[in-house]
Amino acid sequence: MSYSVHTLNIENHSHIIGRQDGVTGDSIKANDEIVFCAACQSVFLKDSWSYMNNEHCEQSETLDFVPSPIPKLVIRKGDKSNDKLIYEVKDEFRYEVHRVLDILLELKAKYLSISLSLLLIALLWYFVPKEYGIFGQDGALILIFSSVILFLGYIFRNSSENNRTIKEFSELKILETGIIINDKFYYYNQIETIRSNKKKNTHELIIKLKDRRKIIKNLPVRNYERTKPFYIALAWAAQFIELNFYTDNQREHGLLKSIEQNYAGKIWVADNL
Hints:
Layout: E1 6-7, E2 33-36, E3 43-45, H1 46-51, E4 85-90, H2 92-127, H3 137-163, E5 170-175, E6 178-181, E7 184-187, E8 191-198, E9 203-209, E10 214-219, H4 224-234, E11 242-247, H5 250-262, E12 267-269
Parallel strand pairs: 8-11, 11-12
Antiparallel strand pairs: 1-2, 2-3, 4-5, 5-6, 6-7, 8-9, 9-10
Helix pairs in contact: 2-3, 4-5
């Protein structure tokens, strides 16, 4: 079975050199041939990967690139609107509700003017004396007026469609300098610890602030592939604060243990699966 092997050099891979092989515990050196598990990004010497029958985290995929180092950031005060967004957890339920309401409003804009104009035609037609006939003066005025209503309705509909936007709802945003939760921004230097506690049917994020306040946020429960980017993004904050993780998912636990071993900062992963 084929897999990607990388040869390290000091110029480009100093952030990898010095890490430990996941099997032997040997220190990774320049010119070593190494393999990265695609699931958890743990690093292995080529021989160790072969020893494991080319599998880790219950899969055999490997990275075809060497992961980049995590940038070292300095917390800055300033306009957080210019912060780089690292990761966002969206409230998909509220998004879908808003999307359905938006469609209903679109239908209203599309058909309301037409319905009103037809109703107006019917009412005016009812009150026009029969002797004028459909080709009389009043009949012509009705047709002209109705055409104007229909035209304005068409313009209004197109204007509504062009200006329509779908609002994005966020549960959580991880930024370079802090976190936005419940639409409120917290700098990393205001936070003491963040604990991610994920079980089969719940995913709870507990943020303990330095002023002893505690924020508890229930996040949507997602599968491994969709939770993995959240864990990696949250590891960004380990440069500034302590992170605690718990999960009862074996694959996620393997990823978190790799993050604990290989990322800079205070990261602790519970072992009681």
